[in-house]
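Collaborator request, handled under Task 6.
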Amino acid sequence: MLEGGGRPPREARVRTVAIDAVALMPDGRARARVETEAAGFRFADLLLFVDDGGRWLIDDALPLGRDPL
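Structure tokens returned to the collaborator:
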């Protein structure tokens, strides 16, 4: 949370663009390819999630690429 409770400036925000290739892995974790936009770039990452009692938390991340917008 920002000081004073305000939102971060638009240029500092991360926007989720797409989530795909979602799959449950044999070890119980889930994976998904996630695209985001921030600071004039589009990022693609493969995220691994672990179930923490009903909440899926990011366990690991593999950067797949970065392209300018």
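The cover message to the collaborator said: "The chain is about 0% helix and 60% strand. Residues 48 and 56 are 9 Å apart (CA to CA). Please let us know whether this matches your experimental observations."
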